[in-house]
Amino acid sequence: MYKFLITKTAKKVYFLLLTLFILDMFITYLQSSAVTSSNKATHIAPSGLTIATIPVAIVPASVPTQKTLRVLTWAGGEIIFPRRGHPQDIELDYLQQFADEKKLKIENIRVTKFADLIPMLLAGEGDVIAANLTKTGQREKLISFSDPFLLTKEYLLMGSQSKSLQSGKDLNGREIVIQKGKSYESTAFGLQKIYPNLKIRLVDSRISHEALYDKLASGEYDITIQDKNLIQSASAYRDDIKMSLQASATRQLAWGVAPNNKQLLNELNQFLKEQNLIAKVKPKSAHRYKTQWQKIQETKTIRFVLRNNLSSYYIWRGELLGFHYELAKRFAKEHKLRYEIIVAPNNVALLDYLLEDKADIALGFLTPTAQRRNKGIAFSRPYHYASELIVAHKDRAEIRDATELANSNIYIRPSSSYWESAVELKKTVSGINLVGVPESQETEAIIDKVGGKEYEMTIADSHIVDIEMTFRDDIQSLMALGAPKSQSWAVASGHDKLLAKSNAFIKKHYKGLFYNVIYNKYFKNQKRLDTHYKDYVLQNDSGVLSPYDDIVKKYARQHDFDWRLLVSQMHQESRFNPKAKSMAGAKGLFQLMPRTAKELGILDVHVPERGIKAGVLYMNWVRERMRKDEVQADQLIWFTLASYNAGAGHVRDAMRLAKQQGWRDDVWFGHVENAMLLLSKSKYAAKARYGYVRGQEPVNYIREIKRRFETYDNIVKKI
Predict the structure, then answer these.
(1) Percent of the chain scored above 90 by pLDDT?
(2) How many other CB atoms are found less than 10 A from the CB of residue 525?
(3) Which parts of 205-261 fold into alpha helices (H)?
(4) CA 609 to CA 318: how far, in whole Å?
(5) DSSP assignment, residue 313?
(6) Residues 419, 458 contacting (CB under 8 angstroms)
């Protein structure tokens, strides 16, 4: 009886399973055969995001449609034996988690050629690219990118037996192999611009990472470029490749989505955010603002941008002078910094240089305005106040109020704060015509044109007008526009620490002894102003830098030097005094030792012509010696000056030390000059071939010559 019951039950189960199997086959048949339309329908996930556009069968309502996330992956990015932490596996794991949350099915579409990934996405053959894809400007023009889930850097990669690279210069004569379509292409061609003898070979993008590694290991390929995360993954199981020099800045890896699939992009970004997977990228501007003062301290150099005029920065008989120049020098000295003076080519550039990070502080009696703040400029506390005056020719009839300015032409630079004041004036006085003048014209030059009746009127600060009226009697001030306005130092917005340092300096010195002495020196000493003004005008009109310009030009042409640089050097050596003699016995305008001059065939260097000839001949001889050391072409002149001042032996010691310290041995500023300073310390001098040198002297010597030369370059043409 028991046995019978078991047999009967088994039969029931058998017939039940058979019925279910037949029913399943029938449903499958209906699904495969009932496609009667070629229409396509868009499948929508529960959240509403677009996932896939695929043919839809006409099926019974009880059979649900399948929602699919189609992921385009690069077949060449896979490895034969998957390992924990492989970059492509990580991406797919993330997307699988995303799909599970959205109740989606993942369909991995393996693409043979990397270069086909984006075209397939745009053609609707996939929904998202997951292939260790680097976010680049070129790709952003074609597709949308999710928030980055990883930050990496590109490195040069080679076989373990390949000749190592000590520096970028070693790339000359080598070959980089890149798969077509990879972001590494732009990196490689960027390197080629720097190292023109670097060869680049583009190979088929079907070549996988593993095949690439094999060819590097065998020596068939020389070098390639890879993301650091890929190299680290491969290095975990391969010892026949090695990572070399860094080839790029930080790169962002992200998923690629079609531009019109915004809902999917938003959902992916929301997923990354909720899972705390977004790689934190600091905006360049925020990073720059936060670290500006730190960067200044690290380089021990602060950059001031000024205009070349009598109130800010000018040359008088070879000396660098100016109210703002002296403020800049004092600021640098108090903070134990070197300083660089950058001469802005026009008044717009004065502030633009801050925004472009070409300078740290702008000085120039700058009036804070809303327009300038909106541009991204921050201003210090006031360090000067000035009234804005209407300036006209002396023959213009005096006025009782502003209404008498009706129908006048006022000439002003559009970028100046005067323009904004004139716009306000125009609201209350009818018929005023504002005429924009070139941004390169200084206020003093505009006033000069008013004095010559070329311009009818202008607006200028009271202290500038006071100086001008000291020298000339062809202009007058008709009236002041409102109360005196404050004037400040300027920095790029966000440089809060730098701004605080500026404010502290101004608070300490404004109206104090130092401030009052230099203010009176440049704006109140009439005798001094008169002398400097005449020389300044002569220099700008004639291009004369020294009493010996013609002699210097002659020998500069013979030996291919910039004559203005030689004049700058001559000033540094002798202050243009042909009878100058140092304690060491150096003589003449270029301060040569008598024995050196004699070897050059010149006896009496006190005679200007002979002294200059000897100096240029010696500079040329030194330059040819330094040329053999293969320094960069644009750096040769600085190494030549260093050798002229300290001797070639000490310079070569500094070059060797720079290389040992991990600095460049073919760049002077910030590299070899730093090593030169170290040679003043016994720790380093003891190991130097030529021993101790007072490194600060050649460092200062070159910086002073460079600073003066850049000023000459701004005001006087080379020829």
Answers:
(1) 44
(2) 13
(3) 209-218, 228-235
(4) 19
(5) B
(6) no
| pTM (global) more than 0.70 | no
Q: Could you please state the CATH topology (level 3) that the domain comprising 68-279 is classified under.
A: D-Maltodextrin-Binding Protein; domain 2 (3.40.190)
Contact 86, 304 (CB under 8 A): no
CA distance 699 to 696: 5
Residues 204/113, Cβ–Cβ less than 8 Å: yes
Q: What number of CA atoms fall less than 13 Å from residue 309's CA on the CB side? A: 24
Taking the C-alpha atoms of residue 107 and residue 98, their distance in angstroms, rounded to an integer, is 13
Residue ranges per domain, the chain?
A: 2-55, 68-279, 290-361+495-542, 388-482, 549-715
| 338-343 and 301-306 strand pairing | parallel
565: its two tokens: 């640089």
Summarize pLDDT for 159-198 with one digit per residue, the tens. Answer: 989 999 998 899 999 999 998 888 888 889 989 999 999 9
In CATH, what is the architecture of 549-715?
Orthogonal Bundle (1.10)
Strands 223-227 and 256-257 turn out to be unpaired
Average pLDDT value over all residues in the chain: 82
pLDDT for position 290: 53
* Three-state DSSP state, 673: helix
CB distance 420 to 485 below 8 Å: no
Helices within 244-396 (DSSP H only): 262-274, 284-299, 323-334, 347-355, 370-374
pLDDT value for 65? 42
Q: Please determine whether the domains at 388-482 and 549-715 fall in the same fold group of CATH.
A: no
The CATH topology of domain 388-482 is D-Maltodextrin-Binding Protein; domain 2 (3.40.190)
Torsion of CA 107, 112, 115, 116, to 10 degrees: -50
* CA angle (329 as vertex; 325, 332 as ends), nearest 5: 140
The answer to whether 249 touches 221, Cβ cutoff 8 Å, is no
- Picking from 707, 709, 302, the residue whose alpha carbon sits closest to that of residue 489 is 302
Q: What is the mean pLDDT of residues 590-615?
A: 90
711 burial via Cβ count (<10 Å: 0-12, 13-18, 19+): buried
3-state per-residue secondary structure call for 383-402: CEEECEEEEEECCCCCCCCH
Strand ranges in 481-520 using DSSP code E only, listed in sequence order? 485-492
d(CA 632, CA 665): 10
Highest mean pLDDT out of 301-315, 425-439, 620-634: 425-439
DSSP state of 144: E
The number of beta carbons lying within 10 Å of the beta carbon of residue 348 is 15
Q: Residue 587 corresponds to which tokens in the numbers above?
A: 């003589």
Q: What's the CA gap between 631 and 634, in Å, rounded? A: 8
The fold of the 290-361+495-542 domain, in CATH, is D-Maltodextrin-Binding Protein; domain 2 (3.40.190)
CB 182 within 8 Å of CB 226: no
Q: What is the pLDDT of residue 685?
A: 77
Could you tell me if 683 and 314 are in contact, meaning their C-beta atoms sit under 8 angstroms apart? no
